[in-house]
Design goal:
By secondary structure, the chain is α+β, with helices and mostly antiparallel strands. It contains 3 helices and 5 strands; from the N terminus they run E-E-H-E-H-H-E-E. Strands 2-1-5-3-4 form a 5-stranded mixed beta sheet. The longest helix has 8 residues. The chain is globular and about 30 Å long. The mean pLDDT is 96. Bound molecules: FE2/S2 (inorganic) cluster (FES). The site of FE2/S2 (inorganic) cluster (FES) has 15 residues, from loops. FE2/S2 (inorganic) cluster binds next to loops.
């Protein structure tokens, strides 16, 4: 398992034992105050928007074009730390990843 630390919409930190191979979104959407992920991971809704801590941003694969387009339409977009959690696959290297559920997600 890979540990993720998620700050939910109420500002509470929740630890998640994430399954590698699934996306971050698939691992955190079951939390009570987490992402909605309306499109189910098709990169077409941006309701899985999260903020990633700066030290972790540089360790993640770069945003693809579709992800950039979706995030650009988000009012909460922060170029330094916004990601769509459905576009990040959990790997062992992400153990300890900290993220914050974005307000509108
Ligand atoms: S779940 Fe819709 S864009 Fe990620």
């Amino acid at each position: 398992m890979v540990k993720l630390v998620v700050t939910d919409k109420d500002g509470r930190d929740v630890e998640v034992d994430a399954r590698p191979g699934l996306s971050v979104m698939e691992n955190i959407r079951q939390l009570p105050r987490s992402v909605e992920a309306i499109c189910g991971g098709l990169c077409s809704c941006a309701t899985c928007h999260v903020f990633i801590e700066a030290e972790w941003m540089q360790r993640l694969p770069a945003r693809r074009h579709e992800e950039r387009l979706m995030l650009a339409g988000s009012r909460a977009f922060d170029a330094a730390r916004s990601r769509l959690s459905c576009q990040i696959k959990v790997t062992a290297e992400l153990d300890g990843l900290r993220l914050v559920v974005a307000p509108e997600s």
